[in-house]
Amino acid sequence: MHNLSDTFQFDTFDVCERTRATTALRLLGQAGTSMEEAANEVVEYLYRSFLTAVGKPACALIRCFKTHRLGDLPADLREVAIRPLGGSPSDEDVLCLTLLATRGDQPEWNTRFGSRSHKAIPLASPVVLARAPMIARLIVQFGLDPHSFLNPEPNPSHTSTPHTLRVFHVEQALDSDFIPAQSSFVVPFGIHSVLGFGGLLPSGELFCILMFSRIHISPETANLFEPLASEVSRALLGPGPRPIFSGKARE
Questions:
Q1: Domain residues of the chain, as ranges?
Q2: For residue range 189-245, what is the model confidence (pLDDT) as tens digits?
Q3: Per CATH, the architecture of 15-237 is what?
Q4: 8-23: buried (b, 16+ CB within 10 Å) or exposed (e) per residue?
Q5: Whole-angstrom Cα distance, residue 201 to residue 76?
Q6: Reduced to 3 states, what is the DSSP secondary structure of residue 121?
Q7: What angle separates helix 35-49 from helix 15-26, to the nearest 10 degrees?
């Protein structure tokens, strides 16, 4: 449940407030019955906690994504993912960046079922990845090699290393080559900066939180979010094995 005392502003966010945020995130997701439920708790907390100077949500949209093998997706998401691949996938191991949770200003932004084009994004090759500039840039800023990321080892190490948790940051979203949908999203919703944080789970799968902010986020502020990634990872993994998706539409 959201702690009403946790309210932050991007332009004054500091180490002390980061400690409050990490403490709150540490308590999320532990009682959820799926990874999706935990992700919804995380994006809800962030959406309600980061505010403008007049108390409105600072972010127009916040989303949580995680990669999955195409062959591991439920039928509805698999159908979405194979459309850009011509409807007939040749490789069940193709990675798909899959939407787990979403929170935002528009009603359709408050359930993953309402997403039109981001439910499951297939990343079949470096060429396909290049067509998704924000994702490609995120992978680079996370310190991952694109080729190794798209072709993960069959038995990844379960040891977390410091470089697996990173921050993605676009200080000026307007006219940025890395942020698509300029005329349909960035301009009409006044997106100033984009902040992401996440990394690799012990399974080797990528997770990330993306925050599309109407308020300027400086590089110094963005770097403060790296420790939050470990708490989001903890929330997603929970106390033990559980399903990825709940299958329930968010109310």
A1: 15-237
A2: 999 999 999 999 988 899 999 999 999 999 999 999 999 999 999 999 998 888 999
A3: 2-Layer Sandwich (3.30)
A4: bebeebeeebbeebbe
A5: 24
A6: strand
A7: 150
